[in-house]
Design a protein that fits this description.
With 169 residues, this protein is an alpha+beta fold. The chain is built from seven helices and eight strands; from the N terminus they run ββαβαββββααααβα. A hairpin with a 4-residue loop joins strand 5 and strand 6. Helix 2 packs across helix 3, helix 2 runs antiparallel to helix 6 and helix 3 runs antiparallel to helix 4. The two termini are 13 Å apart.
Length: 169
């Protein structure tokens, strides 16, 4: 899993140099994927995008996610005031946690928090307790499917394989 700072200046085909997140604004997912491929030299096979509301819905469908936060985060802009330590975040708290840049290292901490959270989310989503419980599995699957935008050639099985691969130790 690789994180790229959204404010990185990169060459955007047809637009010159700008921040990475401008590629999405200029040309949506196809231009963003092309820009990342050029900037990194990596080929991207699949693309998935999740909206903020959908993100919170997936977390709430799982009954919250346990995350061990290395340092307290108080960010009124993100709507959170989280103490350091392990705790269960609901959807809105999780959204604030992955969006917050109100820390000493701003975007670097944000990327680390996103990876920390994604690991915890995948661990819970692929756990026996979730997969064997239709009352947990169905809402999670329904909310995930409603909130994702994927490549034209992608299938739900591609997302399942990704989640399974990322959910390991």
């Amino acid at each position: 899993l690789v994180s790229l700072p959204r404010d990185s200046y990169v060459g955007i085909p047809g637009y010159g140099r700008d921040k990475l997140n401008a590629a999405f604004a200029f040309g949506g997912a196809p231009l963003l994927v092309q820009t990342v491929e050029i900037a990194t030299g990596l080929h991207i096979d699949h693309y998935a995008q999740i909206g903020f509301a959908g993100f919170a819905g997936v977390v709430d469908a799982l009954g919250g996610i346990e995350v061990c936060i290395p340092q307290a985060i108080d960010d009124p802009l993100a709507g959170i005031n989280l103490p350091a330590g392990c705790q269960i975040l609901d959807g809105p708290q999780a959204l604030g946690f992955v969006r917050s840049r109100a820390t000493a290292m701003a975007d670097i901490d944000r990327m680390n928090n996103q990876r920390l959270f994604l690991s915890a989310l995948l661990k819970k989503a692929t756990s026996v307790g979730t997969l064997a419980n239709p009352f947990a599995l169905w809402p999670m699957a329904r909310n995930t499917a409603k909130s994702l935008t994927v490549d034209e050639d992608d299938h739900i099985w591609d997302l399942g394989r990704l989640a399974w691969a990322l959910g390991g130790d």
